[in-house]
Amino acid sequence: MHAAETVVRWVAALLLSAVSLSACAGPRDRPIEFVYLALGASDATGVGAVPLTEGYVYLIKRDLDRRMPGVFLMNLGVPGARIDLIKEQVRLARQAGAKADLVTVWTGANDLVNGDDAQRFQEDLRALLGMVDDDIARTIVIANLPDLTRLPRFRNGSNPSVTAERVATFNRIIAAEAKAVGAALVDLFAGPVRDDLVFGPDGFHPNNAGHREIANQFVRVILPALNLR
Q1: What residue ranges define each of the domains in the chain, with the CATH number in brackets?
Q2: What pTM was computed for the model?
Q3: Angle formed at CA 79 by CA 90 and CA 222, multiple of 5 degrees
Q4: CA-based, 20 to 30 A from 213: which of 20, 60, 132, 146?
């Protein structure tokens, strides 16, 4: 079985169990009042943080927990995922009947680093956000890409796909597609890219401090989008 097929089956099982859980909570269970669905790649799973539950998605969930009861997280982050796999996750989520009060999306870095075509990325992102907006959630918060050229792994220019021009192109695409569905944009490109925020062993993923910075930037956009303080 191919790795991608394995991931898709795992995501399908996770979605079915999550949807069943949200539908079948009994009177003794803490009622689910707010569903947060996270879409992304390794960063969404907490890679670079120790432990993984210090990743930005879990930090966002904890912040929401402090502000409202009954927050339920469906984290569909998959290490290494590119936009095509994340789009398939959304298709499966829709097929499983998943509904969410908030969806966060952070994608594009793996596509850019691997030299994927920007136009194809835009087409897939448009389809992904359209499915979320039409059938899953009305509140969507999506982040753009930080300046990947300043990360230790790419600073020496060894990867010809990681250029300032491609980062700018991907970010224009993310901004345009976010605007098309009324999604709120987290401007990570305007945020800091410092070595003390990067996981040292790979020079790419955020470390604990980096995940906190990303979570804080997401939360600053999420709160007004949800009319929360």
Answers
A1: 30-225 (3.40.50.1110)
A2: 0.90
A3: 55
A4: 132
